[in-house]
Amino acid sequence: MGAGFNAMNDLVVIQTAQGLCAYLIKQYPDKLMHSNRGIVIGYDARQNSKRFADLTATVFLNNNFRVYLFQRFVPTPFVPYTILRLNCLAGVMVTASHNPKQDNGYKIYWTNGAQITTTHENGIYQAILENLEPQVCAWNVDTLKDNKMLFDPYNNVVPAYFDSLKREFTCQQLVDNCECPVSFTYTAMHGVGYAYIDMAFPKLNLEEVIPVQEQADPDPEFPTAPSPDPEEGKSALKLCLETATSNESDIVLANDPDADRLAVGELADEGEYKLFTGNELGTLLGWWALELYRMKTEKPDLAKCSMISSTISSKILKSMAAIEGFTFHETMTGFKWIASKVSDEQKAGKKVLFAFEESIGYMMCSNVPDKDGISAAVHVGTMACYLRCKKCMSLQEKLRDIYEKYGFHSSVVSYAICNDVCLIQNIFHRLRNFGGGQKDTYPKSILCGEFEIEHVRDLTTGYDSSKPGKKAEYTVSEGTQMITFTFKNGFVITLCSSGTEPKLKYYAEMCGKPENKRWDEMEKTTRRMVEAAVNEFYEPEKNGLKLKTED
305-322 burial by CB neighbour count: b if 16+ within 10 A, else e? Predict the structure, then answer.
């Protein structure tokens, strides 16, 4: 947040809202749709979030739109849920998710409840440029007072959300939740999640969570979590793990500040907490979605079902699909692409059982076509109770059981800090011109030829050596760097820049066959190849990159 056109401030928010409004009017010219269906606006607890939401509402009210403006902090997934429940034309969520306290952001959702993709992004951007001058009364939030076109959707939406969440489980599971003594410690990371988790767990007969008191209430200063990102692991979850240890909790749950992501840990035999990676939790929840479908469906037909994950996430769902018979789809990075694919699948008559992205984002039900940390927490809690009471298993034991059936999947996800945009471009330019400066001549191996590269896919340029004509099926957004190297031994690593943070990321995985039980060897090979690929391709020492310190 700050002054200028490259930061979040009142003027930029008004200009953005005016552009979105103009674009919606163009897409939906019937004025009755504006006044009857309207738009929903939510906001988190960050500095200026409510102010930016109020300014957005003012712009739309001045243009005769019905506006559903939440009058309290809400989790991000409540906005797409409201769009579908109230048949809104679009939605806006003011949040910067898990970014540092000085940041804020503006998420836009389309009529289908999904975050906007390229076509709408380009159209809204052009509409913003055509509507830069603030309209009369754009700054006057007094418009919100006693306005007959302004509604708070909370009482209409939130009880319905929890009712629909409850219907995702069988009656027997709700009974088991009540009888199974699994205990939970929870942190909201100074965000909005605790009030909603506190409602959700009793609703599903789960034991009430033990909150991390220092982080339970919304606080835009994030005093105990300067980097409020539960994906960072033990360093970010220090207070949560201490609270869990002192209370001897079985399970640790952590939402990010806008409660659309979820991190999970479980008490291990040695008394320490095992924090699951995003891919590991995606593996567990993918199995759970399949188990739930079979338990709830009289005549399950997996041929009519699908699961979805992004290209940088584990391929475990693909391995499951090969054995179980459901359809697996891979999308570009970002939940907006996953949600768009969910919409396509539903139109084709498919039931989407589950979708995830390795960055601890999970969609357990298409009622919310986005990642949902509240829903995911309830599902993890119920899954943990089910496994303990019905299978005599922990989450860790179930994870190993899944690998026994579908093959061990060893993955590594991490990053290097890089604040220099030009350096990032130079790093990827070098990889694309590896053979004496010639175009599309990528590295052919690592460790002096020990591990050879079989295919290269560059979604920035559209190059894919494995496809006819060497043309990739899709490309990433302009300005994003992303190259995937597939090695002859099955190891795959994707290098990419971050769209929201000063990071050079890498995502690596080795997928084993069910018959291969040499998991330790696979793990060692994966980590050795990751280290070599990062050193040879990113050249962190030469380029002054700071690698993430692993927990």
Answer: bbbbbbbbbbbbbbbbbe
Do residues 19 and 131 touch, judged by C-beta distance below 8 A? yes
- DSSP code of residue 536: I
pLDDT at 29: 97
Classified as helix, coil or strand, 506 is: strand
Give kind and range of the element (H or E) at residue 495.
strand 491-497
Q: Collapsing DSSP states into helix, strand and coil, what is residue 306?
A: strand
To 10 degrees, the CA torsion angle through 197, 288, 156, 26?
Answer: 120
CA neighbor of 370 nearest in space, from 356, 384, 388: 356
Q: How far is Cα of residue 200 from the mean position of the Cα atoms in its chain?
A: 20
Confidence of residue 438 (pLDDT cuts 50, 70, 90): confident
pLDDT digit string, tens, across residues 43-99: 999 999 999 999 999 999 999 999 999 999 999 999 999 999 999 999 999 999 888
Q: Percentage of residues in the chain with pLDDT exceeding 90? A: 87
Q: How far apart are CA 196 and CA 209, in angstroms?
A: 11
Q: Do the beta carbons of residue 54 and residue 70 sit within 8 Å?
A: no
Which residues form the catalytic set? 97
Rounded distance, CA 149 to CA 143, Å?
A: 10
Whole-number pLDDT of residue 551: 64
Q: With DSSP H G I counted as helix, E B as strand and the rest as coil, what are the percentages for the chain, rounded to 5?
A: 40, 20, 40
CA distances from 474 to 120, 127, 342, 457, 458 (A): 17, 26, 17, 10, 10
Tokens of 539: 């050249």
Name, of 135-144, 332-341, 348-357, the range with top average pLDDT.
348-357
Rounded CA-CA distance 545/505 in Å is: 12
Answer for the pair 477, 509: CB distance below 8 angstroms, yes or no.
no
Dihedral over Cα of 460, 466, 472, 476: its sign: negative
User: What is the C-alpha separation between 249 and 245, in angstroms, rounded?
Assistant: 7
pLDDT at 450 over 90: yes
Instruction: Say how far apart CA 113 and CA 309 lie, in whole Å.
Output: 18
Q: Is the pLDDT of residue 1 over 80?
A: no
Residue 331, beta-bridge partner list? 310
Tell me the backbone φ, ψ of residue 531, rounded to 5 degrees.
-60, -45
Whole-number pLDDT of residue 478: 67
